[in-house]
Amino acid sequence: MALNVHALSESLACSFVDLQCPNGQFIYVSGEGLNASAFLPLCGGLLQAQGQYPGEMRFSFSCKNKWGTRITPMVQWPDKSFTLGLSQALAWQRSGLMVRPTIQFR
């Protein structure tokens, strides 16, 4: 865990705080607010949360099936939007060069 604090030299006000944990990070910048991000391995996938105060929050869960398809549903507040991302990596070899395009749907 790391903690970085930058304060103004002439006052006691804190202008910048950066707190890093093994599973996330919290950043406070004076005048901009608080930014936070965290992740947690869950059921073979990765649960992520990102947010800004004041501002918006975003939650997503990303997992990959046995065929290599990555599925990522995402929810955002306060606009209450939902996004479903599908990504499939393809690979083939052509004259000694490995080609790996990715197909994505959102």
State the main characteristics:
two-stranded antiparallel sheet; nine-stranded antiparallel sheet; mainly beta; elongated; 106 residues
Describe the structure.
There is one protein chain. This protein has 106 residues and is mainly β. It has one domain. The strands form two sheets. Strands 1-2-3-4-5-6-7-8-11 form a nine-stranded antiparallel β-sheet, with no helix packed on it. β6 and β7 form a beta hairpin. The protein starts with a strand and ends with a strand. 0% of the residues are buried.
Strand proportion? over 45%
Query: How much helix, percentage-wise, in residues?
Result: under 10%
Cα end-to-end separation = 35 Å
State the helix count: 0
Structural class: mainly beta
Total individual domains:
1
How many beta-strand runs? 11
Give the low-confidence spans: none
Shape: elongated
Largest sheet, in brief, is: 9 strands, antiparallel
Q: What multimeric state do the chains show?
A: single chain
Order of strands, widest sheet: 1-2-3-4-5-6-7-8-11
As a whole number of angstroms, the C-alpha radius of gyration is 19 Å
**Global mean pLDDT:** 81
Order of helices and strands: EEEEEEEEEEE
